[in-house]
## 1
Amino acid sequence: MTFSEKLKNGKFIITAEVAPPRGTDWKSVIESIKPLKEKVDAFNVTDNQRSMVRMSSLAMSKLLLDSGFDPIFQITCRDRNRIALQSELLGAAALGIRNICLMTGDFTTLGDQPDAKPVFDIDSVQLIELAKKLESGKLLNGKEIKGSVEFTVGAVYNPFAGPKILQEWKLRKKVEAGAEFIQTQPVYDIRVAEEVNDLIEALGAVPIIGLLPVKSLKMANFMKKLNPTSVPDKLIEGLEKANDPAQYGWDYVIDIAHAIAEFGRGIHFMLVGKTSELAAFIDYLRNDSPYNHKF
Amino acid sequence: MVVVKLKPFEEILKALEGFKKVFIFGCELGSGRCKNGGLREAVELGEKLKEKGFEIVGIKSPGGTCILERISFPGRELLKEAEKNSEVIISLACGAGTQLIAENVDIPVLTGVTTLFIGAEREGKYFNEYCIACGDCIISETGGICPIARCPKSLTNGPCGGAIDGKCEVDPSIPCIWYLIADRMEKIGTLRKLKIRAPFKDYSKSVYPRSLILEEEA
């Protein structure tokens, strides 16, 4: 069953993130995720993440597809105006890329080419509207297009950003515009994961909760600095005491994944390092866990 | 107000290489208000240039350099006087004022400032960008606070996911403008307006160079 079919059939979803290479060596990227083939349902292919140049996410998505993986083509508003966005999405549809995840994108000055001109012609809500318009057989200006366009549209949500009311309204706008699944920023608290899961589900989209295994105390502190409320004290304390912080960080996230498998609809692994461990965990969830009927 | 910033003296000096007689224009309208190109700064620049051996043939800082052309007599005479007596004009007016001077004289006109933005003066100490003259004003929908100019991503449907702890992710030293918009709209009872999806912005209205044509009276 494909990612899209699972989504529609109420199955539990497991996605993971993969970054295109800085350069053209796509084969090593494919190689690195091979242990997750047919285990992870779909791979989000990032679009010049953190405003740093990588190979095109559209090209990498197609290479994933050709290598037997189901890609989720991520596309942002940072580098393309509405003309380019429509063009890219039509290209994706023609290449057989079904899943897309649409977002505003990190700002240019946060990356390593801060002198670049930021675009932001439209925002994430409008980008979803744009994709749905293409699906309806028309360009934004109403002109009819030849050939069919069919997407499974996703968007993102950061439960730790504010103002809370406006973030929730924006999330609602995304779902109303046509987002079928929502992937979140990493969550390190089961209670938060449950709240976010319920919020997204109540709006009518499938929640896929973000999980980012922390590899070290330094990484946790860095994330806490960026997003103070997202990293609970107990994670920091646990990392301080741990003999093997990377293992602790992994186990911590796996515990949350267990909980989400019980109450939720999906998990999204960001920055996968431990591919064989993740593959084993997915096998366990599917075959031996009390939640195996959900897969 | 158009906010400008004086260029470093060394840069002005370099641009003046090969010239001797200099006329300096300030502007009281914007440059003067932001203390980066009014009469005081024009006089200070004149003093520094004299020390470097330049002959300062005149210093003037009109109320508005960009309307000099319209002030038919005194203004035009001023420009003619500057043109006649000097080899080069240094203008501390904004980009518009400086270009207007250049259009009216046949000697080189150099700028001594960089034009930064349309902004507001706060506490007499600093200036913030408030408007990017997008040509498609939406502030009536956002509590009188502009997210086009004051959000680096010009978002119209609400804040991005980087708005953490009230701060803008692009520059954490400034607040995320959507927090100010939410507070204000809640206070004036219009917050619910933000539940509605914002239309695509018409950027054809910001294609420069733009003009405003006054309709002639019948």
## 2
Amino acid sequence: MENISIKNIKMNQTAQDWQQALTITCNVLVESGSITNEYTKACIDSVLEYGPYIVLSPGFALAHSRPSEAVIKSDMSLVVFDNDILFGSDNDPVRVIICLACTDNIQHVERLSKIGEKMFEDEHLIEKIIQCKTLEDISILING
Amino acid sequence: MKQRIQAVCGFGVGSSMMLKMNIEKIAKEHGYEVDVFCGDITTCTANECNVIFTSKELGARITERAKVPVIILNNFMNKKEVEEKVLAYLQEQ
């Protein structure tokens, strides 16, 4: 099973600020019918409330909120930005954002943990994703 | 005694899940038996555990009300930092 389906991966995006960057990343899942716009709002609100803790490592943010009715099915998207996105985190600037949407605390765990393991074992994974020239290359890094 | 470790994020499903896996991995690699679970920022201080691992932003919110040590990780995905801080804690126990 793919961790993130290639149709949920986008590259060469630009955003004016972190809110727009999160919206672009969440919109991939809105278009796939996995979440509603309410989920996007919840992801943004959580950063406004708790700060930029979703910027987990240099260059990388994991946009997410709690399981809710705004999630139609558990899913993930990944967007690579051409410009630096600033969250006000020590791990700025961000270039890669994954949006995680889950219907419960269980369904997404296997896929998320496979991605996490790849990042944990390869500290240059985010840089490699940024360097990719095609969606297929990104997919191989994330799903291979 | 088996350490009960809580990984905390905003909702206990995303970043804390990634942190939980990384803590488990380090503990296993170094032969420690630990019980790691995810918690959310709102309820984490009511959960029974020996220690809390979380981010800088969230740590600042819970350090005052937590009854157990709160250990801050700047980079959840950095093996060196997670290894250093998890082992430093476990070796003291």
